[in-house]
Write a structure and sequence with these properties.
The complex is a heterodimer.
Chain A: E1 7-11, H1 15-27, E2 31-35, H2 38-48, E3 52-56, H3 64-74, E4 79-84, H4 88-97, E5 101-105, H5 109-120, E6 131-134, E7 137-140, E8 145-148, E9 151-153, H6 157-167, E10 173-175, H7 176-183, H8 192-206, E11 216-219, E12 223-226
Parallel strand pairs in A: 1-2, 1-3, 3-4, 4-5
Antiparallel strand pairs in A: 6-7, 7-8, 8-9, 10-12, 11-12
Chain B: H1 2-5, H2 7-25, H3 37-86, H4 93-105, E1 109-114, E2 121-127, H5 135-143, E3 147-150, E4 156-164, E5 167-177, H6 181-245, H7 250-276, E6 284-286, H8 288-298, E7 308-312, E8 319-321, H9 323-340, E9 347-353, E10 360-366, H10 374-382, H11 389-403, E11 408-413, E12 419-426
Parallel strand pairs in B: 7-9
Antiparallel strand pairs in B: 1-2, 1-5, 3-4, 4-5, 6-8, 9-10, 10-12, 11-12
Classes of the chains: A alpha/beta, B alpha+beta.
């Protein structure tokens, strides 16, 4: 937790969670705003234009889903959902509405901070994608080269496209549907199983220890997440 | 005359009228003789006409009586159908409606018997009624063909099988009826349909109650899930704050680790409740390495400082399993394994294709503790997890969760000392790029 900056709006009806999360974010160097429901959240967001909104889903007076929908109509502020574990359907619904990521309660503080960092990282525009560098892995978009632990790895064009998509969204979940849309350009007949097969062979090529993946992990029922943080 | 007394009386009257006409009006008046031949012709015509008219009137009158009988039957049928279908969802209405119909079409009553799983059940019995032990009931039910017995005054006792969709589910008995077979068959079909409908209604009521109970469980589960996990989250956040300000974090570590354990128990409870509430496992191809990673992430404090070796054998297929339930099982097994040995003994997580079945995958959690506890072995032998103590109970939860996904959990003694907890799961279908 070194240099961090940005204003984060925390929306949760439970004061213990709201204050606890705000205190941890403040300790990590962020400015924080607090709201107890979706209405107040939407109002504060419009007034103060935070860099990130962290929201609970179950709230009286405009729940998290409604807040996500309102924020998405207003702009692109990254939204991180605080959801109760086991609510997989809620998680997917929130993503579909435009949330960027989720953290399951009970979460650990390092996990929360990692998700926040990933959202605040400047969104990489793929058209100006240059060199992406992660610990032990370098991805050179221009030269279509991938180097793992100092050695170049040969990837198929599909594998390279998948890696580029996931790595440029490091720390964020990428759904199987998004992968089919971006890598296969939504070609009809592309199944989740086909995606799994390509991701499987990509992981075999880039993971130094297949038993302990460092870069790509599955996100149950959703898709994949590139878990390594870029070297700044 | 024909209308009131029938054809014979009417014909006799015609004859008498003809004779009187001859005696009083035809010359020679006052005698039975007829002098003028044309008068014979007129008289004969008169007689013939009156006989023919008598006949016609008598016949149409009989038809009217028949028609009246049919009308009564139709009315009974109509009333029955209205009764049966107006008796909306009220179970028990069937018997009342059938009783009314029987009184209308059978002069001596009758009854309705249903064949269920047990002995035949008499639903209605009116007038002479019926006896559940009547052997004719059973034979009509078995053959699915109606039977008739002669009754007093030329009426019949009719036994009608009630069949819907090839299955005879009862017999309707109409005693002392003169009704036509077709009408009786219609009554039989109506009652049969209603019996079927009533059975369906009671089944539906039962299913609705079940569904209601499931939806109640699900709502309760969501509430409990939220109400238990929110305070745990608040406690964790509070502990993080304490840790930042505490001079000595040893106590904070103890509370944090116990909170992690508590959190695991809540997850166990909710996973079991989720299965119980009918939220079935949602399997998807899951790479073993990711399942292990999930289990390790669930226990960062319990496992802090432990050496954990993770190996995934080449060619290990993905498991076709519910990722959340599988992580749940592995975390439980890991927690047990961590308790089994001293803190400096390593733990192993290993995945490999099942050597005996290419369609399955093995996920092992291995420790160097004292081996499979004696009470767990004893319980496994007796088949009762309740006797197995704490470790066995945790194991039985794992077993239930695994079975819900077509998997198994077993504990084995590990060669060289320790225990192998083995989760065996179906493998995802092979890769075909």
């Amino acid at each position: 937790m070194t240099r961090t900056s940005g204003t984060i709006l925390v929306v949760d009806d439970d004061p213990a969670i709201r204050r606890g999360v705000a205190a941890e974010l403040a300790a990590a160097g962020y400015e924080t705003l607090e709201a107890a429901d979706g209405d107040e959240g939407a109002r504060l967001s419009a007034e103060r234009e935070p860099d990130l909104v962290l929201t609970d889903l179950a709230m009286p007076v405009a729940d998290g889903f409604e807040l996500i929908a309102r924020l998405r109509r207003a702009g692109k502020t990254p939204i991180l959902v605080l959801s109760v574990r086991g609510g997989d359907a809620d998680k997917i619904r929130a993503l579909d509405l435009g949330a960027d990521d989720y953290v399951m309660k009970p979460f650990s503080v390092p996990e929360l901070l990692a998700r926040v960092r990933a959202q605040l990282r400047r969104h990489t525009d793929e058209s100006v994608l240059g060199i992406l560098e992660f610990p032990g892995l370098t991805l050179d978009h221009e030269r279509r080269r991938v180097v793992v632990e100092g050695k170049e790895v040969r990837l198929t064009p599909t594998e390279l496209s998948i890696l580029e998509l996931l790595a440029s969204h490091a720390g964020k979940p990428v759904t199987i549907r998004q992968i089919i849309g971006r890598v296969w350009h939504g070609a009809p007949g592309t199944t989740p199983d086909a995606v799994r097969v390509h991701v499987g062979s990509l992981r075999k090529k880039i993971e130094p220890d297949p038993a302990r993946p460092r870069y790509i992990v599955t996100e149950p029922w959703v898709g994949y997440r590139f878990v390594a943080e870029p070297v700044s | 005359m024909a209308a009131r007394f029938g054809f014979a009386a009417s014909a006799a009257a015609s004859l008498a009228a003809t004779a009187c006409y001859n005696y009083f009006f035809l010359p020679p008046v006052g005698t039975w003789t007829i002098a003028d031949p044309p008068n014979w012709v007129a008289l004969a015509t008169f007689l013939l006409a009156s006989v023919v008219v008598s006949r016609l009137v008598a016949r149409s009158e009989r038809r009217a009586a028949d028609a009246e009988a049919r009308r009564t039957e139709m009315e009974a049928l109509y009333d029955l159908s209205v009764d049966l279908f107006a008796a909306t969802n009220r179970i028990g209405a069937l018997g009342e409606a059938a009783g009314r119909a029987l009184r209308t079409i059978g002069t001596s009553g009758g009854g309705l018997v249903l064949f269920g799983s047990g002995p035949p059940e008499v639903i209605v019995s009116v007038g002479q009624g019926l006896d559940a032990g009547d052997p004719l009931l059973e034979s009509v039910g078995r053959a699915g063909e109606p039977a008739e017995l002669p009754a007093a005054d030329g009426a019949r006792d009719v036994y009608l099988p009630l069949a819907v969709g090839g299955r005879t589910n009862g017999v309707l008995v109409v005693r002392g009826t003169r009704a036509e077979r077709n009408a009786l068959a219609s009554v039989g079909r109506l009652v049969a349909l209603s019996v079927e409908r009533e059975r369906f209604l009671s089944e539906r009521a039962h299913l609705e109650a079940l569904r209601e109970s499931d939806s109640l469980k699900t709502s309760l589960l969501r509430a409990v899930s939220h109400d238990l996990r929110t305070p745990i989250t608040a406690i964790r956040l509070g502990l993080e704050r304490l840790r930042r300000f505490a001079a000595d974090t040893a106590d904070v570590d103890v509370v944090s680790t116990e909170t992690e354990r508590l959190s695991r128990r809540i997850d166990n409870l909710l996973a079991a409740a989720r299965l119980d509430a009918g939220a079935y496992p949602r399997p998807e191809p899951s790479p073993p390495a990711d399942l292990f990673r999930g289990a390790l992430e669930a226990l960062p404090l319990v496992l802090a400082g432990r050496t954990i070796d993770v190996t995934v054998a080449p060619d290990t297929p993905d498991a076709l399993a519910d990722p959340a339930l599988t992580v749940e099982i592995l975390a439980n097994l890991l927690e047990n394994a961590a308790r089994a040995g001293t803190r400096d003994t390593p733990l192993d997580l290993a995945a490999e294709p099942s050597p005996t079945d290419s369609g399955r995958v093995r996920l092992d959690v291995r420790d160097r503790g004292a081996g499979v506890p004696a009470d767990v072995k004893r319980a496994a032998a007796s088949g009762s997890p309740a006797d197995a103590g704490r470790a066995g109970l945790g194991l039985s939860i794992c077993g239930s969760l695994a079975r819900a996904m077509g998997g198994t959990v077993v504990l084995l003694d590990r060669p060289g000392g320790g225990t192998i907890a083995r989760l065996d799961l179906p493998a995802a279908p092979g890769e075909t790029p």
